[in-house]
Design brief:
The chain is α/β, with parallel strands linked by helices. The chain has seven helices and ten strands. The chain has a domain of 160 residues: Rossmann fold (3-Layer(aba) Sandwich), CATH 3.40.50. α3 packs parallel to α5 and α5 runs parallel beside α6. The relative contact order is 0.19. The structure holds adenosine-5'-diphosphate and magnesium ion (MG). Adenosine-5'-diphosphate binds next to β2 and α1.
């Protein structure tokens, strides 16, 4: 079975069933921080994940992003269980399916904006070609940064860096972008711009977004809001 092919439209992009996560398993300080999460995100959905600090939002995003292993439960990514996969296969699925945007942009300082945007594809395929460069430049143009393609991150403002990170998350055409407080570090105006851009990419490219935000104004502009309280879904 080739999971690089898009799943059938009726399959949820991600589906979690009774997912639990304990940190420090087997130690005296073992703490369960996700207590049986059930959630789904459909293809092309634009979803906010809200909740108090410490409620488990980043942990949940990291589990969904295959960056942290869940302790128990079931996680289907495009209809396929990921619970028992090894590291190489997890890395492959992450590369094929997921893009990431973090609060602090995590752009590589030694590389230009364009090179940063091309990085996921370079890592995934081990090479990039002219078509990749063209798509990278087109994405940068789309996020309003055509002029900045050959600039390094330190030459760009925080909002511009975050727009590069969004272009990077979309560069390999993945169906889902996970964003952990992508506007948390920005002033209101840049936050609005970055948010509007994600919404536009969602419409234009059909990319689903799951966005952790503290900002109720931004959450209200999503298709759906999932609220996490004390490691449990309270609404969503
Ligand atoms: N690597 C870790 N080891 C142990 N505890 C952790 C770790 N990461 C997060 N936690 C704990 O898990 C809980 C949820 O944290 P987190 O997912 O970061 O919440 P949020 O993103 O909603 O603020 C917190 O109590 C936090 O201290
Ligand atoms: Mg967090």
């Amino acid at each position: 079975m080739d999971d690089a092919l898009p799943a059938d439209a009726s399959t949820a992009l991600i589906e979690l069933r009774q997912v639990r996560k304990t940190y420090g398993l087997g130690t005296a300080v073992a703490t369960e921080v996700l207590h049986g999460i059930d959630l789904q995100v459909a293809q092309g959905e634009f979803v906010a994940l809200i909740g108090p600090s410490g409620s488990g939002k980043s942990t949940l995003l990291n589990v969904i992003g295959l960056l942290e292993a869940m302790t128990s439960g079931e996680y289907l990514l495009r209809g396929q269980p990921v619970g028992s996969l090894g590291d190489a296969e997890l890395t492959r699925r992450r590369g094929d399916t997921l893009g990431f945007v973090f609060q602090f942009h995590h752009l590589l300082p030694a590389f230009t904006a364009l090179e940063n945007v091309l990085m996921p594809e370079l890592i995934r395929r081990g090479r990039i070609d002219a078509a990749d460069r063209e798509r990278g430049l087109a994405l940068l143009a789309k996020v309003g940064l055509a002029e900045a393609a050959h600039k390094r991150p330190t030459q760009l403002s925080g909002g511009m860096q975050q727009r590069v990170a969004i272009a990077r998350a979309l560069s390999h055409g993945c169906p889902l972008v996970l964003a952990d407080e992508p506007t948390g570090n920005l002033d209101t105006r840049s936050a609005d711009e970055v948010f509007a851009l994600m919404r536009q990419m969602n419409r234009d490219e059909g990319t689903a977004f799951l966005i952790v935000t503290h900002d109720p104004r931004l959450a209200a502009r999503c298709d759906r809001v999932i609220e996490l309280v004390d490691g449990q879904v309270k609404r969503g």
